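Box 3.1 — From sequence to structure: Holo-[acyl-carrier-protein] synthase
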Amino acid sequence: MIKGIGIDIVELSRIEKIIQNRSSFVKRVLTENELEIFNQLSLRRQIEFLGGRFCCKEAFSKAWGTGISGVGFQEIEILRDENGAPVVTKSPHPGKVFVSISHTDTLAIAQITLEE
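Predicted structure (token representation):
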């Protein structure tokens, strides 16, 4: 049974400015494992990666029903499976969590589905 669905979208130009001007935000949003991946990427891929993860965590909070004030960025982790697809490896939800991330040249979008 589906417990919640959340979606979020962000302009990548906003994420680029954040990376350039507020490096503390990157560490606030990304877990240590996510940060490890982030640091190995080119600037363009860092923008997409952070944008996608930020959207995932915002979408999770919407699916969870609390908004971001009810769940912290560090409580949710999105890594990659053996094929490179995003997978939620840590969250406060006890059931299954499904994630989808997409990018254009200007936007990142993510959807989260929580299943009991």
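Summary of the box: Helices lie at 12-21, 23-29, 32-38, 43-64.
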